[in-house]
Write a structure and sequence with these properties.
By secondary structure, the chain is mainly beta. The protein has one domain. The protein is about 10% helix and about 35% strand. The longest helix has 7 residues, at about 5-10. The radius of gyration is 14 Å and the shape is globular.
């Protein structure tokens, strides 16, 4: 597994976010924002829990199969600058199906995975530092979700390394 993979999942932890209708949320970000704004088949990733409002947010979509989170196996990737307020990033998908989302907060915007970076996964699974050491992915059932004929909202809470733990701020 790559360092990018580890940084991408470093932020996965348990936390819930309230889900509201797509139209009830703030400005949608990303080049495919119009898809989510019109409730088309897409994924609206609602990212919460930023340690700092700096750097870049990377959102990647994978097929929900054994190759999820593997290097260069993503289907779509969207990078947006971090800003204040809600961060809701629209990512297109090829059609209805099962997917996994990975998010990485590149806190200093250098394009590299650093210990200060945060991350998260769809389903917000509880991850331990030992999972990264032994390169264990969370179970697919914990992180996969179904997309139908309309926009699917996926809440993700970022997690960051803090000493020997990996938790939300």
């Amino acid at each position: 597994m790559s360092k990018m993979f580890l940084a991408g999942i470093l932020a996965a932890g348990t936390a819930g976010a309230l889900m509201a209708p797509v139209a009830a949320q703030g400005a949608t970000l990303g080049p495919a924002a119009a898809l989510c704004d019109s409730n088309a088949t897409a994924v609206l990733v609602d990212v919460r829990g930023f340690k700092a409002r700096t750097g870049t947010l990377r959102v990647q979509i994978y097929n929900a199969d054994k190759s999820y989170l593997e290097k260069r196996k993503w289907l779509e990737r969207v990078d947006v600058p971090v800003r204040s307020g809600p961060m809701q990033v629209c990512v297109p998908v090829k059609g209805p199906g099962n997917y996994v989302v990975s998010v990485r907060h590149d806190i200093n915007g250098n394009g590299k995975s650093d210990k200060s970076d945060g991350g998260g996964l769809s389903g917000n699974p509880d991850m331990k530092l030992s999972d990264f050491i032994f390169k264990r992915k969370p179970k697919l059932a914990q992180v996969s979700f179904a997309v139908g004929g309309s926009t699917k909202r996926v809440p993700i809470t970022l997690n960051y390394i803090n000493g020997l733990s990996f938790d939300p701020v």
